[in-house]
Amino acid sequence: MRKAQAVVEEAARGRLETLAFDREHLWHPYTSMTEPAPVRLVTGARGCELEVDGRWVVDGMSSWWAAIHGYRHPVLDAAVRDQVERFSHVMFGGLTHEPAVTLGRRLVDVTPTGLERVFLADSGSVSVEVAVKMALQYQRGIGRPERRKLLTVRGGYHGDTFHPMSVTDPDGGMHTMWSGLLPEQVFAQVPPRAGAGTGHLESWMLALERQVVRRRDELAAIIVEPLLQGAGGMRHYDSECLRVMRDLADEHGLLLIFDEIATGFGRTGHLFVSELVTPDILCLGKALTGGYLSLAAVLTKDAVARGISGSESGVVMHGPTFMGNPMACAVATASIDLLLASDWPSRVASINERLATGLEPLQELPGVKDVRTVGAVGVVQLDHPVDVVAATDAAVAAGVWLRPFRDLIYTMPPYVIADEELDRLLHGITEAVKAG
């Protein structure tokens, strides 16, 4: 008995020491180093649950929208093990390997027709950097070097490196402190919310057309998160907006870039939103590897590749050290195959129905401004900034892990979440809203 107690006490001391070192030395996303927000220690994961501070909680975030199959999936575990037994990494410069070729073939097969050239990047933000470079090099290659700006919409978010920051909302986004240092891009108004009505849609379309016509000689491309804006505010907008962007891009010689890092692989109910409207350049990430390893992909049309080849360098001026990492490529292919072999459309639809039904009553709670869902995404928007610590504490106490931000308490659960776990998740969101 004493021995067991000693083991428990030793484990507790170890956790405290780990957290103490973390607090003193490790930066976390959007967190002060000198006055850090509290963090919790993860010691295990299984299915749709994380072991956090010694208790199992339902992960409502899919580890920032990536772990669509949950944790410790035997198929994905095996893909990583099998590849590491062959080789874990090899440079992609001058070399290739089967995992990269297999993944490239799979991506060309599952994405819309015409997206045939594949650049394997190492993170979502980097994929946007590469897409922007491609657009600028394309314009140079076809003899339009003066076209150096991107048009995007307000309310968007595209990553934390410099060009992605430049096309993130400069006023309401997370990168306002960099105004004046970033490249100045062209911002259209936030697209009208899905279901807002034809009047709002037509007004937005006319304003966008005027902007494009006025700035067309300096614009290289239009870049947006299609259908659902992510970290900029979790807004779901009308798909007709994408068709307007496609038509304007075609009419004025611009490229259309879709950032599907958050929306790709079924999250909105479409395997890719690009099935509705095909872009010239498509960025994928997050769920690409099922949350196992960092990997992103940029797919382009052949015409884009040929335009880039006509620029001064003749090549895409980018080459990450871990480009095409074999382990990441192997698990990405396994994740895609696992998704396609499942009845993911029905599962995403079922999650949506349960989220819509379970979250709708929260509209009546004090402080709630809006409740909305799309695909396997549920959002509660408050009329004030969330008290992140209080909301997180309340969620964990209810057996749920959430990561609110700004005025939003939201969830993007793994697709494999069971109904009982989804009910726990809804309870946790309710408690977070009451506390936040």
TrEMBL record:
Annotated binding of substrate, by residue: W64, Y157, K286, G319, R403
Leader peptide range in chain numbering: none
Annotated site (Participates in the substrate recognition with KAPA and in a stacking interaction with the adenine ring of SAM): Y30
Pathway it works in: Cofactor biosynthesis; biotin biosynthesis; 7,8-diaminononanoate from 8-amino-7-oxononanoate (SAM route): step 1/1
UniProt keyword Kinase present: no
Highest taxon listed in the record's lineage: Bacteria
Cofactor(s) annotated in UniProt: pyridoxal 5'-phosphate
GO molecular function: adenosylmethionine-8-amino-7-oxononanoate transaminase activity; pyridoxal phosphate binding
EC number annotated for this UniProt entry: 2.6.1.62
Residues the record lists as binding pyridoxal 5'-phosphate: G124, S125, D259, P320, T321
Catalytic activity: (8S)-8-amino-7-oxononanoate + S-adenosyl-L-methionine = S-adenosyl-4-methylsulfanyl-2-oxobutanoate + (7R,8S)-7,8-diammoniononanoate
Classification via InterPro entries: Aminotrans_3, Aminotrans_3_PPA_site, BioA, PyrdxlP-dep_Trfase, PyrdxlP-dep_Trfase_major, PyrdxlP-dep_Trfase_small
The keyword Cytoplasm belongs to this UniProt entry's keyword annotation: yes
PROSITE patterns reported in the protein's UniProt record: AA_TRANSFER_CLASS_3
CDD domains reported in the protein's UniProt record: OAT_like (cd00610)
Record-level GO cellular component terms: cytoplasm
Location of N6-(pyridoxal phosphate)lysine modifications: K286
Recorded family membership: Belongs to the class-III pyridoxal-phosphate-dependent aminotransferase family. BioA subfamily.
Role this protein plays: Catalyzes the transfer of the alpha-amino group from S-adenosyl-L-methionine (SAM) to 7-keto-8-aminopelargonic acid (KAPA) to form 7,8-diaminopelargonic acid (DAPA). It is the only aminotransferase known to utilize SAM as an amino donor.
Protein name: Adenosylmethionine-8-amino-7-oxononanoate aminotransferase
Organism in which the protein naturally occurs: Nocardioides silvaticus
Gene from which this protein is expressed: bioA
